[in-house]
Amino acid sequence: MTARVPSPELNHMSTVTPPISQTSLAEKPRNLPLKDMREAITDVWEHRDLLQQLTLRDIKLRYKQAVMGLAWAIFMPVLIVFSGLIIRFAMAQMSGQHLVGTEVADIALKGIAWAFFVGTLGFATSSLIGNMNLVTKIYFPREVLPLSSVGAQLFDSSLGVCVLAIILPFLGVRLHVSLLWVPVLFALLILFTTAAALALSCANLFFRDVKYIVQVILMFGIFFTPVFFEPAMLGARGAFLAALNPLTGILEGLRLSVIDGQSLLQPLTTVVKGVVVPVWNPWELVYSAVWAIAGLIGAATLFRRVQPLFAEYV
Amino acid sequence: MASGVRFEGVWKKFRRGEVHDSLRDLIPAVARRFVRPGTRPPLSEQEFWAVRDVSFEVGPGHALGIMGPNGAGKSTILKLLTKILRPDRGLREVHGRMGMLIEIAAGFHPDLTGRENVFLQGAIMGMKRVEIARKFDEIVAFSEIDDFIDTPVKRYSSGMNARLGFAIAAHVDPDVLIIDEVLAVGDFRFQDKAFSKIHSMCTSGIPVVLVTHQLDRIATLCTEAMLLDQGQVRLHGTPSDCIQQYTMGPATAPTDSTDCALTIDVLRFEAADIVRSGDRLAFQLSGRSRSDFDSDATDLHVSVRSATTGMVLFSTGALPCGVELPRDRAFDVSFDFQANLVPGLYHVETAVWDHALQRIVRSGPAKSFTVQAGDSPFGGSIQLNAAMSVMPRSNGTASQKSDSTIMTPSGILINS
């Protein structure tokens, strides 16, 4: 996933042509992706105070002049959880069962993770466009703009996680050793979300309709991501297809390690109507990790390489 | 490596009109490219060079002023300098932390308070949080909005906004200073304060690049200047040369587009081109007249123009001065005037005036001169050579003639 920047040689044709002898002066040799990545990291690190200020700004702006204030941070996940509960309740009714506490916990946990993903991309996609006056006027590593959206959403979501941590014991969730997986899974979720945030903010700067596409995908994405359901409910083939979604490994990993207390190193299966359906495969985690890390490298490289064009194309 | 900036043969092109800005436009364009490889849509016809082959170098102790008409490429050069744009060709080097007095309130968010915006804008300008915290009081004091620092910026007046923005930008402590048209901030009192701040930054020895339409600022602040036109460097030299070329344009060289009985060839200073306010400045002028010259129809025209405003402050001619130019011969004219002007840069321009048409029919040579502060400082826009004398009265007895004259500190007794 490497981007090609339109090179200046490709599309200049004008009445005046600069002397050939000076063509290559500004052209740095094309960096390897990892070098771009390293450059991006050092650049952002040097501007960490700016990142902090922009994140603070994004957080403050969400709660300034807002009647509900901090309740907004909880509102979105709560809404997702309740929609999930209605669906699960309907499913339970159909099969003549009762909704149990851990099922509510499943949905709450995965709902918060999904809300983080959706919330970040919602803000990040328009982060470069929304700060057009900065992008065209002052230089700083532009990565900090989508990254500050991630940071602000991280703040919101950690509020949600705190609330959830208080509620979970009441839903019958006990402490397990497998909780140690949570930092890894959160890290993967954040990396994957950051990768998407970088790529989409950058794409939206060049093509304004990316924002609408993202809206549609995020709206219907919940049906293609196991938030309200579990892949095993879709049958063997369905579970395999659901696992192609990079978020599946992360969300299912969270559910199994936090709610069910399962180790993520062992494959799990269940029997549905006499057919063995896989519930978990450790490779799902590897798959998600590859998406998160490769995605981040790709997105950061793409972002770095097209960044000099932002001010012109915005 | 010493701080500084360097441009070497920098070219930058822009596009006129719309670029593809939605996928709906892009996909057909890409498809077309696939169908007919090698042919490209006629985009390049819409392109133009905004900056063509510009080279300069500014090191410590140097201040470069860039001037030129709107659209000459001044701001593009600054955007190239500040890494916002990437040159299509050429080399751009910047060493050291760049301080930008550009769009000084760009990062302000209307919903945040002044205090929050100071930290935000400071960070955008490249300051560390501790650094902003340390300078915070200084910034607020400079901006003079202490009482409103915890008020959202959306309730600020535009002047307060600009003052706060300037105060932040002015406290960055840069290695290289870039200034773009921010010299007119706030009311005249704050402008003076801002200008003296800029002046002290410029004279502190750091490299400075300044873009402004206030040419007298370039004359005072810069060690060298560059005149741009349509993206190209027209002149790179001393500030006064560039200002002269810019404000007078083609008038510098005598034109002979119209057939004219009078020609002015040379204009030179009798002595120096620097005069103190209130002193006389003398010129020598050489010209020739044809046999059909009629002093009632055409006349020699001399005018004094402010380099700052471009306004003609004074004009006269041979006829108004009561002299008659000879017919059918070369002649020398000497003239002088009292430079009752505020310190600054001025041009003296010569021309041939047609009485019937009531306009200049041919421009002659021109020179620029500098007016410095004289012995008696004054305020306002014109030196009126005020005289003042004081006659102290002895106590008790009125209207007694005094034999001592006391000068006021600001005035000097001048008999003219």
Summarize the structure.
By secondary structure, chain A is mostly helical. In chain A, 65% of the residues lie in helices and 4% in strands. Chain A is globular and about 60 Å long.
What do these coordinates show?
The complex is a heterodimer of chains A (314) and B (416). By secondary structure, chain A is mainly α. Chain A has a domain at 32-223 and 293-313. Chain A has 13 helices and two strands; from the N terminus they run H-H-H-H-H-H-H-H-H-H-H-E-E-H-H. Chain A has helices spanning 33-46, 48-63, 71-94, 101-125, 127-130, 132-135, 144-167, 181-206, 210-224, 235-242, 246-259, 282-306, 310-313, and strands at residues 268-272, 275-280. Chain A has a two-stranded antiparallel ribbon with strand order 1-2. In chain A, helix 8 runs parallel beside helix 12 and helix 11 crosses helix 12. The two termini of chain A are 23 Å apart. Chain B has 416 residues and is an alpha/beta fold. In chain B, 23% of the residues lie in helices and 31% in strands. In chain B, the strands form four sheets. Chain B has a six-stranded mixed sheet, sandwiched between helices. Chain B contains nine helices and 17 strands. The model of chain B is unreliable at 38-43, 250-255, 400-404 and 411-416 (pLDDT under 50). Chain B folds into two domains: 4-26 and 35-246, P-loop containing nucleotide triphosphate hydrolases (Rossmann fold), CATH 3.40.50; 253-372, Distorted Sandwich (Coagulation Factor XIII, Chain A, domain 1), CATH 2.70.50.60. In chain B, a hairpin with a 4-residue loop joins strand 16 and strand 17. Classes of the chains: A mainly alpha (314), B alpha/beta (416).
